[in-house]
Amino acid sequence: MTDRHDDVQADRRRLLQWLGAGAAASTLTWSGKLFAAASNTDTRFLLVFLRGGYDANSLLVPVNSADYYSVRPNIAISKTDALALSNDWGLHPALKDSLYPLWQRSEIAFVPFAGTDDLTRSHFETQDSIELGQPTSGHRNYQSGFMNRLAQQIQGVPAISFTGTLPVCCTGPVNIPNVALQDANRAPFDERQSKLLAAMYDNHPLGAQVKEGLNLRQGVARMLQDEMTAANRGAVSTRGFEDQARRMGRLMREQYRLGFVDVGGWDTHVNQGNANGALANNLNSLGKGLAAFAQESGEAWNKTVVVVVSEFGRTFRENGNKGTDHGHGSVYWVLGGGIHGGQIAGEQQEVSIPKLFQNRDWPVLNDYRAMLGGMFTHMYGFNSQQLEAVFPGVKPVDLKLV
Amino acid sequence: MPLTRPLPLLALTIALISSPALAADAGATLSQPDLDWLQRVTWGVDAATVARFHQLGRSGFLDEQLHPQGDERLPAAVKQQIAALDITRQTPLNYEAQYRALNEQQKNAATDEDKQALQKARNDLGNNTINQAMQRHLLRALYSPDQLQERMTWFWLNHFSVFAGKNNLRTLIPDYEESAIRPHALGHFRDLLTATMQSPAMLVYLDNAQNAAGRINENYAREIMELHTMGVGSGYSQQDVQELARILTGLGVDYNTDNPRLKPELMPLLVRDGAFEFNPQRHDFGNKTFLGQSIAGKGFAEINQVAAILASQPATARFVSRRMATYFMAQTPPERVVDDMARTWQHSDGDLSAVLKALLTSKDFTASLGKQFKDPMAYTLSALRLAYDGRQIINLRPEINWLYGLGEPLYGRLTPDGYPLTAEAWSSSGQMVKRFEIARAIGSGNAGLFDLPDGTKGSGFPMLTNRLYYQVFDPYVSGNTRNALTQANSQQEWNMLLLSSPEFMYD
């Protein structure tokens, strides 16, 4: 492990030197493959974390479940509104123009009854559980998230977190840079200032981080400047996540191969709405974002896998406030140009009241570690030891999606 | 005196004019260990702190810090600013009454527009309240001469962490900080623990307001054992957690001014204090066994009894001492420091100022000086204290936002475990660049810190090339940093570089 870690660090250093040299040559534009770093894999993986536990029953609608319609008098998605996916399942209509075309092209699949065996139904407990990717029984090591362990296993593959602080998932020995794209619209420092700042950290333990952080912010700002000049004439965009996702797509197309982003606002205890309303708006914005990400990835989309997860699903029944409370099983999404999409994958069961877990919510039949473990095995050609390092104690399941 | 910027004489002149208090200490410098020690014990140095340190010496300064005098010594203008805040006059009960009134109006509102306006008014009430609590906290942190008490107030708020985003905690937190935490920050741990057990904010946050006989909610009991006192794996059992949960039944919150309807014989056992209520009807009066000791079911008195038991557990002394040592020393503290502190704890009945003294006067603490990576609170506050040196900040919003941006907002930790006390959580690449941006905002004077509430723009960038800088920092600046500083194009850029330097990230 230590050797491998050193190799990763050595590769990182080389990459940084190379990036530093590139950044100094200001005539190069950002789209001119400035960041086209050498790497030993071209596969891209993006994890999208929906924080707050989104209501999977509104996303993947069990259109033939009489119980679904009886327990959700106000918030169910009607069979006519739902977009047909299969005999039993429909898709939330807010995704009609964004993700439904991907379904038709077999570039998206859904895995219902997915999640973790963490049963606390606590946001933070379960988010931590998932991000750490360690067995839920036994001691937790909070310094080791599974994306960081994945980065350790695929040497020299640049990873990034599109967040203001480093999430638990990316915590660990590999230095994963982070940037919040929504407030990175100005170049924080000019080139001279960046050099002065970096020079103060020469030979300092934080030196590599500082340099990488500065380069990343400069690069992102240049990208956004291009964008504003090209399209928006300097106007501030109101498209929110769609713009951010487009930038993520570009960054992952050109430089990064592992990415993490989180999207909040899914904790819908009150007035979550049905085909329209708060949840529909959130899904609409998320769908547009993912479609924009796919589009911006260009040809790299064929080598990209995006997985959308959330800490848990919600109660099957609507509550007294036309919302839903914390539940258990969720629906995870898998997207990518080269995946075997257009299917509802994994273990499934009938959606009905007698089949509910604790008479409350969906059971988890597809453990996320098993599912991601199976996917990583294919994507990166992991042997069992490598997989064990990413997800200790896991038995991978092959959903045949990648 | 190395000339590291253009026009140093001008800057020096300005500094002399603006800091007359320093005249008595002309030429006095601090040794690097003294500087680092002073930075660690305070939220960062300003001229007044350095002057006091020169006057009293290390041990005199520490003794003064260990016996704070509260708001007495706050500068008059800061006292005024705090007195003008609504939270100074309002209690959780007042806030709840305002909420209910708005709710009532909303129900009866004629139009959807009115409904929305009233909904917004309710939301604003919560936001303004928590915003004021942040302002008050930061004003004291920046300007109180009792700096160690301020650091400990933050530490205990983090140890007994509550999250402003849950339920109505926004209106409960001002009182929580003021009544439960701050008065006991350097007092006895048992009193601090008892105060938190009777605080509406904590009882709501950890769901004990729902914990009643026959409908047990273990959440708070478990967190008391795991996070607040003994620490996980210290020898208590699941049985102890369950028994504690039974003891805690009936501790809750009541916003009604009328007493709850009780059986007459239970009436004398009712305890109320503001929004806090011990409701005997919800209490499990059976006898309990907790940590091997028998607790007779007698009502509210059980709380004081278990607080005393918990506060005197050797495991509590060690767990809490280790947290304090980790906070003040950053790296894993050596066991011998924790041993010393725990021993002091046992001798002094959990006197926190005695325990802190054992830590801050230890050899291991001295050896750790200069090596601790500042967390966002320490970084931003020390930058403001150095840069503006006593000039009172009018608008705290930028500082509040910086803490959000760096991932450590006040009352913003979702989980009851509090923010991490170690460096790795705060030094990611994105956070480092964010720090540089904050350094520039502070150094360039564009942050809006002196904007008046009526919107009038304040201005003026700080002169960091001041007397304080030359006396206490300049001798210890590294070659790398000095090189960068000499290349600064302007005073503003010089300020930005100094506040971004590695030296300024550590204390």
Automatic annotation (TrEMBL), chain A:
InterPro entries: DUF1501, TAT_signal. It holds the Pfam family DUF1501. This is DUF1501 domain-containing protein. It comes from the Bacteria. It comes from Silvimonas iriomotensis.
UniProtKB/TrEMBL annotation, chain B:
InterPro entries: DUF1800. Keywords: Signal. Residues 1-23 form the signal peptide. Pfam families: DUF1800 (PF08811). This is DUF1800 domain-containing protein. It comes from Silvimonas iriomotensis.
